[in-house]
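The instructor's notes for this session suggest beginning with a concrete chain rather than abstract definitions. Hand out the sequence below and ask the class to guess, before any prediction is shown, which regions might be ordered.
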Amino acid sequence: MEKIRANDGLELRYVRRGSGPFVTLLHGIGADQASWDAIANQLETRFTVLRADLRGHGASGRMSRCSLDDFVADLGAMLDALGIRKTHLVGFSLGGLIAQKFAIENSVRLDRLVLISSVAERTDQERARVLKRADQIDREGIASVVAAADERWFTPAFKAANPQRVAERLKQLVQNDHRSYAASYRVFAEADRGMAFERITVPTLVMTGENDPGSSPRMSRLLHEKITESQLRILPELRHSVLLEAPDLIAGLLLEFLQPT
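After discussion, reveal the predicted structure:
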């Protein structure tokens, strides 16, 4: 992995592979750039794929507080440091929130935008549930929310067929730095308010799992309705963890959208 410094000096680690137009991939909360492995392997035959460990995650530097603006600034700093003028941008979950904000503020730097399992304008009840988890993480640690994550993220069929892969993902979640994860989760819980989606001016693909309770089809339909030139795909049966559970499906949809005929 290579590294750059964020604007505040925090170290960010990234991987850049492949050739062709740039595609930048932003992972979800409590994961790292490796969550894109199976998808990136397919994209790298046609694109230069950039994927970084978000601040507080993976091999990047740790922190005890952050904001959505920090994550957005990190992405801009990375593109600047690598001399990337324009890129396709793909964000999953927390990465989708970062991608939304970056696209609102920097549409000129994007060719196409993909929002996967992203959140938008939670209802009061939805926000109360996610804020309750954020408070629980602060008080009791990451392990206290693993059972709930297991239920929200994976379909019963995938869990039955792939118990080891599910266990490894949940183990990775628990192994996150507590302060960094808590700070990132607070951003994830609170930063979906008041996005000016009408300022996104690039072709956009929005997708989520049919049975994702946290990044629900309602939210994806809202994004689709508010973002001009957007497309919508609701993925049958899937819950939240679509990168792990359906990488071939996601890679195929990305290749189709990012290389239009």
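Then share the key points. The mean pLDDT is 96. The radius of gyration is 17 Å.
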